[in-house]
Each structure stands twice: as C-alpha cells, then as structure tokens.
C-alpha cells in the first residue's frame, strides 16, 4: 500500500470518528445549521429594504451568494477548533501511538467538515427559496456553483487547521479566526455592492477571494444583471478562474504547512 493510499484510508477512519460525534453532541450540528438561517433572515428582512444592488436583481437574490460564501468560510473554523480541542484533550497523543499516517488526522478532519458545509448549504438554499431567492441559471451551472463553494471551504479549512495547531486552546482559535474572517467577509461584495466602498477598500475587496467566490456563484446561479455595475478588475471579470487559482495556492501552501505543524505539535 502506497503512502498516499495509507493516508487516505486512515483519514477516512478519522473522518468517520468526527462524524460519529454528531450523534453524541447534536447541539453542535443544530447551531451550525441555525447560523446560516439567522444570517439569511437578518440581512433579507432588516437590510433588504435599505440596499439596492442595481439592475433588476432583488437584494435577496444578490444576498444569498454572499451568505453562501460567508457561511462556508465561517464553517472552516470547525477544523481549527476540532484540532485545537483534540490537542488540548490529549487525543492527538493517542493517535500518535497508533500505526497510522501522520497526515491522516488532518485529512480526516478536513474531509468530515465537508459534511457540515454540505448541510449548511442545503439549509441556506431552502431558507433562501423561502425568502425569494431563485436559481436563474442552468442546473449544471448551479451544481458548479455549489462545487466551487465546497472547494473553497475545503481549501480554507486547511488554513484554519494550521491555525488550530498553532494556538493552545479552542477559545484562542475562535478569537483568532474571528479577527481573520470578519474583515475578509465584510470588506467584500458579500453584502453590499463594491462601488459603495471608499476606493482603497474597494481595491482590496476587488481582489479579495471572498468577493470573487461570491461573484462567481452569483453568476452561476444567474443572480446578476447586465445593468448591475461590474468592476473592471481582472479578478472580478474572471471570478471562477481567480477563485480556483486561490484554492490551488491555499492548498499548495497550507497542506504541507499543516502536516509539518501537526508533526511538531504532536511532539510537544
């Protein structure tokens, strides 16, 4: 058995272990699913009448792409929190005593969190349909949008996994992730059009990968209009390609970094 096959097999066992925790601690899943519902309802009904995205697209259709992007990014924090918790409780030390691949814990953790993101996307989609969101594009494009969201979430989970191995506790990872994720999600086109930002923030938002994944899913869902203002930045003109480039870069950097940090952390 090759090293890669060994890591994938061991990782599937770790992923199963993480998913079994849903049965034992169902409250975690409940709050994971309630969060996107809260954001959809909050922005749709509280801010929906005050923000005009332009063109003939309603704010609720404009909003859902941003909520999707925000939720999958926030969902990546479960990877970091889960690893920090396992480190704190000494479970990682137990894994070390087993004849298993050193990368299996990270592979399993990031894979199991895809399930959380799939469930979140399903709940958001149903809630969005209730508040007036509709998919205007083709079924194939819509599936491509969901796949892009999951790929982006998977890549970002490796970032948070690396952070989770650096910090000493779950409380720290929650605060650290908040400081990173909040600027990324709110200085973007997730909730308001880019032209509403001052120019320096607008430039940042144009090249922010959260903006491009949001723009990409809006286009794939058909939630855009030729009359809506569009940035001339290359990233916003090619949001799918730019987002895929970010996914590749993040994975190329943080997969080896996370595995190396796991080995270091395990020996502390």
Tell me what you see in this structure.
- With 268 residues, the protein is an all-alpha fold.
- The protein has one domain.
- It is built from 12 helices and no strands.
- Helix 4 packs parallel to helix 7 and helix 6 packs across helix 7.
- The two termini are 30 Å apart.
Radius of gyration: 19 Å
Number of domains: 1
Contiguous low-pLDDT stretches (5 residues minimum) are none
* Count of runs of 4 or more consecutive helical residues: 12
Distance between the termini: 30 Å
**Number of separate strands:** 0
Tell me, briefly, the overall form: elongated
Please estimate the helix content: over 70%
Secondary-structure element order, as H and E?
Answer: HHHHHHHHHHHH
Strand content: under 5%
Question: What is the oligomer described by this structure?
Answer: single chain
Q: What structural class do the secondary elements suggest? A: mainly alpha
The average pLDDT is 83
Features:
268 residues, 77% helix
Give a summary of the structure in a few sentences:
The protein has 268 residues and is mainly alpha-helical. Helices cover 77% and strands 0% of the residues.
Could you give the topology of this structure?
Elements: H1 3-24, H2 26-47, H3 59-75, H4 77-89, H5 91-96, H6 104-131, H7 139-166, H8 170-186, H9 199-207, H10 209-221, H11 234-237, H12 239-266
Helix pairs in contact: 1-2, 1-6, 2-3, 2-6, 3-6, 3-7, 3-10, 4-6, 4-7, 4-8, 6-7, 7-10, 7-12, 10-12
